[in-house]
Every structure is written in structure tokens, then in C-alpha cells.
Amino acid sequence: MSNDFDPFSLEIIQNSIDAACEEMFTGMRQTAMSTIIYEVLDFGVGITDPEGSLVSQGAGIPIFIGMLEPGVKAIYKKFKAAGRIFPGDIFITNDPWHGGASHLNDVSLLMPVFSGDTLIAWTANKAHWSDIGGMVPGSVAIEATEVYQEGLQFPDIKLFERGEPIESVIDMIRANSRLPDNTLGDMWAGVASLRLGANRLEQLVQTYGQEVFTEALRRYMDYGEVVSRQALAQLPKGTFRTVGDLESLGQVKMLLTITDDHFTIDLRGNRSQVNEPANCPYAVTLCGAKVAFKAITDPGGICNAGVFRPLRLLCDEGSLFAAKRPAPVGLFHEPVMFVTDLVWRSLADVLPEQLTAGHFGSVGALVIGSIHPDTGKPAFLIEPEVGGFGAGLGYDGANAQFSKIDGETFNTPVELNEARNAVFVRQYRFNEEDGGEGEYRGGKGVVLEYEIKGEGAWTTGLFTPNHTTAPWSINGGEPGSSNRVEIIRSDGKREILGKFSNVPLNQGDIIRVVTGAGGGAGDPLRRDRSILESDIRNGYVSERQARQYYGFSDNQ
Fold this sequence. Notes:
The chain folds into 2 domains: 7-226, no CATH class; 356-556, no CATH class. It has helices at 7-31, 35-38, 62-66, 68-80, 167-176, 180-208, 210-232, 282-297, 333-348, 414-420, 529-538, 543-550; strands at residues 43-48, 54-57, 90-93, 106-115, 118-128, 157-161, 164-165, 238-245, 251-258, 263-266, 311-314, 365-371, 378-383, 423-430, 446-452, 455-462, 484-488, 494-497, 499-505, 510-514. A hairpin with a 5-residue loop joins strand 1 (43-48) and strand 2. Helix 1 crosses helix 7 and helix 5 runs antiparallel to helix 6. It starts with 6 loop residues before the first helix and ends in a 6-residue tail after the last helix. It has a 7-stranded antiparallel beta sheet, sandwiched between helices. By secondary structure, the protein is α+β, with helices and mostly antiparallel strands. The chain is globular and about 80 Å long. The longest helix has 29 residues, at 180-208.
């Protein structure tokens, strides 16, 4: 192909593709039915080349965006050979093994984009559908022993053909979801998002021509590789060994090898897949590896397939991190986050100015369902929870942030949860328990209490790991604190839980979420006294904690 391309046109196309992704993201946010999408932003959008390599992405969940690639590639492989990809088609998949899904709730919609008869790109989105059937409401059951118990599976199939919906597939979705109106509303929002992006790409091709458009995609990904390799050259070289405790799943060992050419994460030799939903298919684990790689190399730069060309991931087939069908995968997010944390931890000592201590280490997914007392209709709250991030050498950890793999998500506003989801929020504040003390403090977790107002209520919570194991500290700081959920019954009885599903609740019961502080950095006795006094005044450190950990005395 000729190199005589106008660089300004290429740059305009590349930036226009980024803008199209952001427009897709905004369109989906503004039209979705469920708060988990339009408030929490538990979705991601992207644009790929014809074969499925990611060219650009919008804001959203990082591991969702990373799994759009295998989704498109699976569809392309299945339908291209048979000549069954047409303009106007939309495909649907939530297959965890080759369809780019994480768990069955996370559904991908994928649309081919054509210029005449030529496939030029794909628009894609992936979002958490609140209920997709299965053995429990919300479709995530800690009791699941195989994926068939976790809900409806879309095995890389068509949802639309030549622009027309396939009604039998839509009927199947309606029949299998406990929240059919919300689910189908979210589906149509995804469809609109895809079409919006496709229109923008078609306009670019009409303006600049197909050859220039294709070259812009190729060069954009090549540029992503250049950026990563430049960052890789600045990292320390060698092999770094790390072992961590994944609580009930036991120890996980990892070898991280950094050379001039590759960043290799080796998870071989770990335990086999388990008969509980804490398994990760290989593509999911790879997304966690991508999150860590991107954060360490070039966190603020572009993100496309080229960026990750230096990354290698090694796993044993059939292991916890490369599970085979029919392993249940509902809690995939906790082990995959653990992988990102192990990468982070393995380099914390050699990159002390760049990396922090451990964070609270959980998505903290909470689901509350009931029948709304005012409307008589199902009320459904689902959201991740925030916690503390680790401190670094020279700065305190961030307070009350979403986990490393959650990206640009938000909490649902208190007012909205109270109005729509049949709960009353009794308190939402920083967690004042011990944890994360240091010359630089770990960030604070939170305490959040929901009082149940609906009837026939139930709850599911997925607060592992770091339910019993505290986030790690660095350079003499104190470990962070752990996560837990308390159910306070209306008669005063308390239950303390980590992960649980479909626990019955009564009106007046309280769900109390407690998330941990991040690990501290440096000896607490070295904390600047003026900063410590400010901490005490502002409630970040109690007087008792100041005396016990920081050696504070009024006589100093």
C-alpha cells in the first residue's frame, strides 16, 4: 500500500473515531433503562477493525472494553467463512470462552460496518444486564457449580439480520429475564449506540475514502505499539516473583518477566478451576493483565490493540485463570482483580515512586431486590461499592474510589435509590476503623447502610477478596482494612458476610456495607505533625489512632 497519505487526513480520521466512541458512550448512557448502566456506567463501547482488533474506545469499564475484541473475532470467524455477515446485522454474545464475555450478565452487541460491499469496521458495546435468568434473581449465585445455572447464554448469534430484529431471539430474552422491560430497554439502547457509531464511520469513509480510512486504522494501532514499547524500555528488567492469598481459593503465584520486547505474566502452576463461580476464562484474565500493563506503562495515553502487542499471558488450560466450559464464572471479577494486584505488588518495590500499596481489592458488587411498596413492581438496586486505595511514597491514598478494574464508574445517587429501589439510605460516610496508617495514609473506605422498604426482599453481595485479608502496605506502613457486609435484622440480630446470594430480607432490615482502607506507606511515626493535626480536625484520624499509631501527644 502506498505511503503517500495526507497525515492531516489520517489524524482527523483517528480523532474522529475517538469522538465516535464517545458519542456511542453518551448515546447509550442517555437511552438505557437500568441504573446500573445510565448511572453506574457499567458498560463499555469500542470500534474495531474488520478482523476485530480494537482501534478506539469510549469511557467505561476497562475489562469490558478489552473483551470486545474476542467477541468480534469469534463472530467474524463463525459467520465470515459462510458469507453471512451483511449490512444492518447486529450480533449478540455472552459466551465466556470465545465470545468475549466475562459472566453471562455482561452482554456484547456487535455490528459490522460496510462501505459498499466491503466490511470496514465493527462498532461494539458490552453492558451489564441486571437479570438474565438463572437460579437466583440477578443471575449471580455463589452456589452455582456450572455455567448453566447462571442464566441465558447467547452463543455468538444474530440479533438483527439486514436491519430487521429477529423476534424469536427477543422473545427468548423477554421470557428468561425477571426484569424484561429493563432488559429489553437496555438492549435497544445498545442497538442505538451501535448504529450511531456506524453512521459516523460511514460518513468518514464517504469523506476521505475507504483506502485512507483503512490506513488510518492501521497506523493508529501501530502508534499504540510504539507508545507501549517506549514505556516498556523505561521499566526495570528481570523476573519478579509474587505470591498472594486469594482467601478461600488459596495461594496464587505469579512470575512477571520484563524484557526489552515483552511484558510476560506467567500464572502457570496455579490451582485448577473450581466448582464455584470464581473462575476466569483466559480472555477475562487477559483483560485484567491488560489493565495492569496499561496502568504501569502509559496510563494516560491512547488505548487500542497495538498498545498490548508487547503483553504476554501464560496460563494452564483448565486452571482458575483459564477455565474451561462449563465452569461457573459469575464471580470472575474478584480473581481477575487479584491478578492486577499481583502485578502491581510485584513491581511496587522496584517502582516506589510510581506504584502504591494495595487497595481495598473488591468490586464490592451489591444487589438488592424487592417489590416496591408504592408501585407493586419489582425494585432492583445493583451497584459496585467504593473503597480506599493504597498510599504511595509522597502522597496519601485516594478515598472512596471504585476498584482498579471498574474504571470510570459511579455510584447511584442516594435520592434515586430511595425513589426507585425501595431502600432508605441511613448513612454514607468514611469508614473510621483502623487500617492504612503510615507516613502517608491509605485512602478511606466507606460505611453505607440500606434499610429495606420493599416486600419480599433479598440481597446478593460479592465482597471478596480482602474479606479477611487486609490490603498490603509498603515501606513500613500499616496494612489496610478488610471488607464485609453486615445484615442487621429488625430484631437486632447481626450477620457478618463476605459473599452471599439471594439472602431473604424483611422490611426494616438493614444492609451495612463496610469497605476497607488501602495500605499505608512509610513509618506512621514519620507523618508530618501539621498534617496529622489536620487529619484529626477533619476526622480522618481519631485521637486514639493518632496516639496509638502516630505517637501523637498534645505536649509535643
